[in-house]
Amino acid sequence: MKKLSLFVFILSIICFIGIPTTSTAQDFEGIIYFEMADLAKQGMGEMPYMVKGNKGRMEINQQGQKNAMLMLPEQSKMVMLIGQMNGYIEMDLNNDASKKEMDKASDADMTNTGKTKTIAGRTCEVWRMESKDGTYETCMAKGMGTFMMPQNQMQKRNAPAWAQKFAEEGSMPLEIVEIKNGTRTVQMKATKIEEKSLSDDLFEVPEGYRDMSGMM
User: Fold this and answer.
1) 2-205 has which CATH code?
2) Exposure pattern of 23-42 as b/e (b: 16+ CB <10 Å)?
3) Mean of the pLDDT values across residues 1-5?
4) Residue 163 in contact with residue 106, Cβ under 8 Å?
5) Where are the domains of the chain?
6) How far apart are CA 92 and CA 78, in angstroms?
């Protein structure tokens, strides 16, 4: 449960710290490959994160089973694609449970350390994050496009200044390090970045998939 909680928190960081404004010609389009420590222990390996405009697709491969999470901000929802069942589950990002996870990231105290790193060939700024879930350092790369957040104007206006700054700069976390009792653990790190054109259907529910949302 703790590992799942950490994964959800990291996902909420990725989702929250890129509030989409308008997509521009300079937006990043392509694939960012991440290694996540806890997922690797579960045999899930590298995680491709695909970006096109303000849409995202996170692929999760576990023991030969391929699933994916679609991030669709214009519809204020995420969609889990379950390949082995030819089904999908929709998650409304405006409901109370989703808002609670987003609030964990939005309530974090972010401080620029003034340090920079080069990760997967990209320069990023190191920010320190203090939250209810612990202390982290995240390395933010500018110009990586606009990312995920519900299209709720009230939530946008209430977003902290650091989140608005990241949105304006098109920033993306390329590394997240957990700091606990003086020990630093890399929980997520980009290993490779490919700029390439992606097909629109990667960000859509495949034809023939059935809605399994009611089973949750």
Assistant:
1) 2.50.20.10
2) eeeebbebbbbbbbebbeee
3) 43
4) yes
5) 2-205
6) 7
- The pair of structure tokens assigned to 9 is 């928190």
* Cβ–Cβ under 8 Å, residues 214 and 180: no
Describe the chain by its helix, strand, coil percentages, rounded to 5: 25, 45, 30
Tokens of 211: 């809605």
Distance from C-alpha of 127 to C-alpha of 109, rounded to nearest angstrom? 10
Q: Are strands 65-72 and 77-82 parallel, antiparallel or unpaired?
A: antiparallel
Inter-axis angle of helices 96-106 and 2-16, to 10 degrees? 80
The Cβ of residue 156 has, within 10 Å, a number of other Cβ atoms equal to 16
pTM for this model (two decimals): 0.78
The neighbouring-strand residues paired with 173 are 140
Specify the length of the chain in residues: 216
The answer to whether 49 touches 58, Cβ cutoff 8 Å, is yes
Residue 28 · residue 81 · CB < 8 Å? no
Q: What is the dihedral of CA 114, 117, 41, 100, to 10 degrees?
A: 40
> Three-state SS for 111?
strand
Phi–psi pair at 169, nearest 5 degrees: -90, -5
Convert the pLDDT of each residue in 6-50 to its tens digit.
455 555 555 544 444 444 434 789 999 998 877 667 666 688 999
Q: What is the pLDDT of residues 115-146, one digit of tens each?
A: 999 999 999 999 998 877 788 898 988 887 65
Tokens in use for 183?
């020990």
Cα 158 to its chain centre, rounded Å, is 20
Q: Is the dihedral of CA 140, 48, 105, 16 positive or negative?
A: positive
